[in-house]
């Protein structure tokens, strides 16, 4: 039966518009046309655009793409580092109705070829640094559909590069109209971006984002961080990773400054923070540890009060403590590619200020509570689909539902149905719910070590190992054991100019761990990492298996 509130109250353009982050840049350009939007380089070589200039360039690029037949539902791939062009494509591509596919710049040619084919890319923009691998990828494609290739020439890149496309980015841009009349999507559920998972087992999956989720994810980041107007944001997080956790769109909403970095190292980060007055940046724990472990002469240049956001892995307490010593304000968030990056936050409580530094670090290491505009995050028993008790003991799987969850996996209905079964997105991460209803992750389901029938959390072991003064990074995986089923194998990366023996690490672990949890095997290596700083445990499992087979 139709109620009174369903009669004569139509949805029209006067009272409804689709949620989309495209609105953010339009407003920034209108309200703050002369505010700085993008800076790339140092004082002598930098490239700078205001919000008015950036908006015009985005419209010009959108127009140029449209003249090449790019339209709604098409895919435009990009192989770009954190440069001004990468900021521009986040607005220009969806202005045409097309979908932006940001490619991981560290992938091999065969994987890139698969992604180009699977996503049915109509065009690809390529930075000169990655032209060689992209040229190989284009040659390896199975599809015969043509791809428009545009060369992006970054004047700040001094390494070897080549041109593989039909024209350069600036030439292509010049053919567009800076007053291009773009429109918001008719349906905010329309796709805005395609992001491929790491694909450590089997083919990578194509995660599809929608305009609504991109807008609400960006706004949630601003809310959780209390990011002020005109914040100065340093791009240490790759924009190809979950669309930079939606921050290209979030910075536009605040009319802030995008400080672009091609390379992430201690010198580049410190120089950018000091030269440009950086107020905010994001990254995996290894990014923040780069500053914590930087030489004193670099650390001494850093101002206090910089806001940092960490995700990508459960951060070790030593890193959290190190950031506090620097005087940085650290916010710990948690999420996955399927949740647009962060969708939960360890929201700090006022009473934590009375705790010791170590106790505060333990509190802040938790994954926390759901984002403002995410419907819910919970720890659920996957067998019964019921929440686990809030007792910090019973483990379940972290699950999300709400506005900041992907549409699904491209061309993969089986995996989409599996991932969204029961009305929840299944993360695959195991956790407990603590009495204050904060989530604390225990492990990936595949990373739990079952030794003699007892569950051992690799994260717990790694946190203890990180506390040794010589340990730069640690990763623990399971190896088969005839007696116990599985035992922990620890891979250790040492800090420069330090040494430690296996016996000393075992003695260190005895101070914090029950005997059955202490790693039985150690290897001292440089840990393999992804482009976003995550340690590649699948590679370490292979190394551990090979090493045990050789014994």
UniProtKB/TrEMBL annotation:
Domain spans labelled AMP-dependent synthetase/ligase: 26-410
Claim: tRNA processing is one of the keywords in the record: no
Matching SUPFAM superfamilies: Acetyl-CoA synthetase-like (SSF56801)
Keywords: Fatty acid metabolism, Ligase, Lipid metabolism
Coiled-coil region list: none
CDD domains hit by this protein: ttLC_FACS_AEE21_like
Gene3D superfamilies (UniProt xref): 3.30.300.30, N-terminal domain of ligase-like (3.40.50.12780)
The keyword Acyltransferase appears for this protein: no
Superkingdom of this protein's organism: Bacteria
PROSITE patterns: AMP_BINDING
Span of domain AMP-binding enzyme C-terminal: 460-534
Family: Belongs to the ATP-dependent AMP-binding enzyme family.
Protein name as annotated: Acyl-CoA synthetase
Organism: Alcaligenes endophyticus
Species classification: Bacteria, Pseudomonadati, Pseudomonadota, Betaproteobacteria, Burkholderiales
